[in-house]
Every structure is written in structure tokens, then in C-alpha cells.
Write a structure and sequence with these properties.
Largest sheet: none
Shape: flat
Distance between the termini: 50 Å
Radius of gyration: 15 Å
Number of helices: 2
Order of helices and strands: HH
Structural class: mainly alpha
Length: 74
């Protein structure tokens, strides 16, 4: 039971991180202002904020890593 909950939590964080990457690369973001319930809106914003934090950590690791390099602009 605990393993399944942990698996779903990790999946949720991964989805949130992908949404953060889409927002960074394209500018499209979920519109949380259409959520009328303030509690649900807060949960959605925190959920998306977790993805932003994870994305920032991954990006910082990649920038400072010898295994990644920036592609030349075409």
C-alpha cells in the first residue's frame, strides 16, 4: 500500500515537472485562476510550484555538469 502511494506521488511530481518544462519552453501554463474554490486553487498552485522547483534543480544540475553542453543556435 505504501509503495503504491509513493509511486503515485512520484508520478504526480514528474507530471508537474513536465508541465513546468512546457511552460519554460513554450510559455503555455495552466490557468489556475479559473478554479473558483480558493483551497483547490491553492493546491493546484502548490502542485505546479513543486514542478517548478524540481525543474530548477534539474536545470541547475545540467548547467553545472560536464555531461551536458548548450547547443549552438541554428
Amino acid at each position: 500500500m505504501i509503495g503504491r502511494v509513493f509511486h503515485y506521488a512520484v508520478d504526480a511530481v514528474l507530471v508537474s515537472t513536465v508541465v513546468a518544462g512546457v511552460r519554460r519552453s513554450s510559455g503555455f501554463t495552466p490557468e489556475t485562476t479559473v478554479i473558483t474554490d480558493p483551497t483547490l486553487r491553492s493546491v493546484a498552485e502548490r502542485y505546479l510550484g513543486i514542478g517548478e522547483t524540481i525543474f530548477d534543480m534539474i536545470q541547475g544540475t545540467a548547467v553545472n555538469s560536464q555531461y551536458f553542453k548548450r547547443d549552438a543556435k541554428r
